[in-house]
Amino acid sequence: MLFRTGYVYGLAFYLTGTHWIALLSNVAITVPWLKYPAWLLAGAYLALFAGLTTWVAGVLVRHGRAPLAVAFPFVALAVEELRASGELGFPWFQPGYSQHAYVPVIQLAALGSVSLVTLWVLGVNVAVWRAWRTRRAATVAAAAALVIAPWAWGAAVTARAPRPSGPAVGLIQGCIPGEIKWAGGHEHEILSTFLALSHRAAIDSLAPKILIWPETATGSYLRKQLDQTIELTEFAARERVAVFTGLPDYELGPDSKPRYFNAGALFLPGGPWPTLYAKRHLVPFGERMPFQRLVPALGKIDLGQAEWTPGRDPVLFPGGTGRFGCLVCFESIFPDLARDDVRRGATWLVNVTNDEWFGLSAALDQHAAMAVFRSVENRVPLARCANTGLTMMIDPWGRVTARAPVWKPGVVVARLAEPGAPTPYAHLGDWPGAVAIAGVCVLAGWALARALTARRRPE
User: Fold this and answer.
1) Which CATH superfamily is 168-424 part of?
2) Which of 48, 146, 418, 444 is 20 to 30 Å from the Cα of 69, by its Cα?
3) Is residue 284 classed as helix, strand or coil in its secondary structure?
4) Distances in Å between the alpha carbon of 389 and those of 168, 241, 249, 367, 430?
5) What contacts 183, CB < 8 A, 6 or more positions away?
6) H helix runs in 344-400, sequence order
């Protein structure tokens, strides 16, 4: 009963939350009808975690006599950690992300990532529930303090935060329709569109040091097509500006077969051959069939997925603006990837994406909201460039300082903020998740000890 209750709730929640899977553009999927069963299967799979949460929390409370106010937040966060892990990891919809627009509250992420904000959200819900049930003055006061204290602290932190005053960055939103980008034969037309928009950005009064194009911007193997590479490097030299772009790329593996990458590369004015970063965490089923390391034969199943090869290491790029790390699309939802880049020396982050697949659905905002946390967690600015939006500049406190309208070609030129001091999260990692998992283990041990004691007790 406990599991079923949570599962039914989870199924309703996740089917509603991921409705955009069923609305994906047919251009995004080689076999378009697969999006409907994919949506149902995604909801059914994710609902398992909601069922697990209610079952574990219920068992600890009913049989272990654990306080619900302690057990539920710990169990819920521990299960969220599980849901975000592995090749099928999908931390989308973690409760903490619901607070992305409340800048004072999300300053908690600098202490313990989005996990700490999630724990706070869960704690507030439990505290308000207890206050409503008991009507006791002390319980009501405790709930009020739990709500107000992070707001007050976060407001004080952001009040002292400086406004962006660093070098300028240009974000180029090409708004190239997928049916043109992936049809072939339009590569020079697309490149010309990006170069024209880039010229507008380059002559802006803020004089940007670097221009950023979105994920797979031109749809071509830009580094491998000499004429396009020359045209882009000549533009960079002429305008005296670096250009960072998302692009597909490939190389021959040890078996002489090509390995394809969803990548990003930096083109410097008169510089060396563009440095490449290959996306490390690929979208399961969309960009690569998962679990191929365990069962190589899975790689032979063709559902129309791209079958990119995952990159192995982060890459830090120069750019006249301080070294930066790259997160390609889906990577922005994983805190550990951004943290790894910052710990290696990145002073700001670039997120390139192509969210055209989502249309005007809620997924546009859902995806962008998670990028805000990567800035706060590491106290570094983040430049997010999307083909159709949301394209925006985020400062180290999670404030969106500039953005472009969605589904229109556009240019954003804005100053980078200076990075803040290293955060507790950058030093310690996801300690709230570890605390939650340890807490569940302690409560489970307590419940087991009670059960063993009761079994040994003479009648």
Assistant:
1) Carbon-nitrogen hydrolase (3.60.110.10)
2) 48
3) strand
4) 20, 23, 23, 11, 29
5) none
6) 363-378
| Length of the chain measured in residues | 459
- Check 329, 331, 356, 385 and give the catalytic one: 329
Catalytic pick among 35, 181, 209, 279: 279
DSSP for 85-105, please give it: SSTT---TT-GGGGGTT-TTG
**Please, is 33 exposed, middle or buried when counting C-beta atoms within 10 Å of its C-beta (0-12, 13-18, 19+)?**
exposed
Give the model confidence (pLDDT) of 79-130 as tens digits: 999 999 988 999 999 999 999 999 999 999 999 999 999 999 999 999 998 8
Among 110, 57, 113, which Cα is nearest to 433's? 113
Is position 175 annotated as part of the catalytic site? Answer: no
Domain with CATH 3.60.110.10 in the chain: 168-424
Question: Backbone phi, then psi, for 262, in 5-degree steps?
Answer: -90, 110
**pLDDT tens across 131-170, in order?**
998 889 988 998 999 999 999 999 999 999 999 989 999 9
Our CA angle for 19, 90, 287, nearest 5°, is 85
> For residue 85, what are the contacts with CB-CB under 8 A and spacing of at least 6?
none
How far is it, in rounded angstroms, from Cα 168 to Cα 172? 13
Question: What phi and psi values does residue 14 have, to the nearest 5 degrees?
Answer: -75, -30
Distances from the Cα of 347 to the Cα of 5, 90, 142, 332, 417, angstroms? 46, 27, 39, 16, 10
**Does residue 459 register a pLDDT over 60?**
no
Angle (CA) 170 174 179, round 5°: 160
Of 13, 183, 169, residue with least CA distance to 93: 13
Q: Catalytic annotation on 251?
A: no
The sheet that has 258-267: what strands, in order across it? 275-278, 258-267, 242-252, 210-212, 168-173, 410-415
Where are the extended beta strands (E) located within 89-165? none
- Reply yes or no on whether 385 is catalytic: no
- Annotated catalytic residue within 35, 80, 175, 215: 215
Please give the backbone phi and psi of residue 128, each rounded to the nearest 5 degrees, phi first.
-65, -40
- State the burial class of residue 156 (Cβ atoms within 10 Å of its Cβ: 0-12, 13-18, 19+): exposed
